[in-house]
Amino acid sequence: MPDIKYVVLSDMHLGAENSLLTNLKNDTPQTDTTHPSPVMVGFVDCLRELISKNESKEKPKLVLNGDLIELALTSTNRASMAFQRFIELIFPENGEFLFDPQILFLPGNHDHNLWEFARNSWYLETLKNLKPGDYIPNELHSTKVFEPPEIQSVFLTALIRSYPHLQNISVDVSYPAHGLINKDHSQCVVFCHGHYVESMYSLMSSLRADIFPGHQPPATLEDIEIENYAWVDFFWSTLGRSGSVGRDISLIYDKLQDSKQVKVMIGNIANSLTKKTKSAVFRALEKKALQIALNLSLGHMASSERNEPEVELTPDATEGLKRFMEVLLHSQLSKELQNDIPDDLTFIFGHTHKPFQRWFTFEGYPNPVKVYNTGGWVVDTLKPQPLHGGSIVLVDEELDVVSLSMYKEGRYSPAIEHLHHEHTAQSDVNTFYERLLRLVKENTKPWEAFEKIVEHEVKVRYINLAESIAGREDDH
Description:
By secondary structure, the chain is of the alpha/beta class. It contains twelve helices and twelve strands. The chain has two domains: 4-196 and 342-475, Purple Acid Phosphatase, chain A, domain 2, CATH 3.60.21; 257-302, no CATH class.
């Protein structure tokens, strides 16, 4: 029977107060990362139940597909401690480990700084091994999809190895994509956090195209990262931790959930920046220009993927996914596989916090591509969003893939979900799917316990977000 070989999680946002996996003090917005959250405990209990049914003694590999820890909206120490609570549960001191000792991590936008830390550390080690006069390679901005260099997350590995019983656990980094492929290259699975499917994350490339229309847009994964890494790192990994400025940025993030607040905020910023202009005419012109610019930046962020509740993917993200697959990823796969694109390809990403699974037809691929989204564990809206939720994507030794939906807002019972073709009756039900479906139904205890916990914790975070916006606005 097919065993679980890989467990894929994303968008845990550990340390953020709006993450279900961050512990709160008595249901208040105050975090207490010295303890695991009730959702985290219940979530790991469900994982342990599934993994315990593997027939092989070999442990599955954990794939952390981006936005693991929150580096934009909380302090580094809180995020780090929340991560350690997770590690304590999956690698207990006096119990059986859930996973293989080698963890795979693909940074996202909210923890992009960990990629910067890892690649710079790796580059320094490379320089240390050079002899005088040797050719000095350029710094690395992305890794190969298959068989990438061994780049360790020094930061995450250090947090893990602070425990004496975890000295052999390591976290390896691939960025922005990592692939698994079978021996005859007929079947392939690619992991990627997926922030570049949204246009706001490639803002520097867009500005470059506007200023220098003759330049071509990025054509490779390395190109898009080189042009945009500083922007992604600045706004989503470092600015939110910048002292009192960071706390105000955190308030901006919260206000982006309310369109009325966004309009007021843009007006306030424009007024503030133009109030010293003496001429009323010039002041009005400056204010109008600033409002246009702010609408293109903050306004666009307010209409981002997670704030569009009616669709799994907005037109912007659908077009971004198409470009990512047909241009950026395709060029990388073609280069590494000598143009031999696998017949059966699965793409797994997160970022949008809206889990789904369906086939997409992309140019350059011999067959429709199976696309899975892992959703997220953050509640960052003021009212229920039925498409928002968190899923686990499971992969077996044959590279068959199944999605386990842990919750969606308004529907809190975990469920194994079908992959249906968008335009046909075709589905991807296989032996792996049928086995997992049976396992979830056999022992309902951990799943029922999780359902009660997650429903309560989601509702707490709706209340906390509303109070946070109102309270911090009063402070300003």
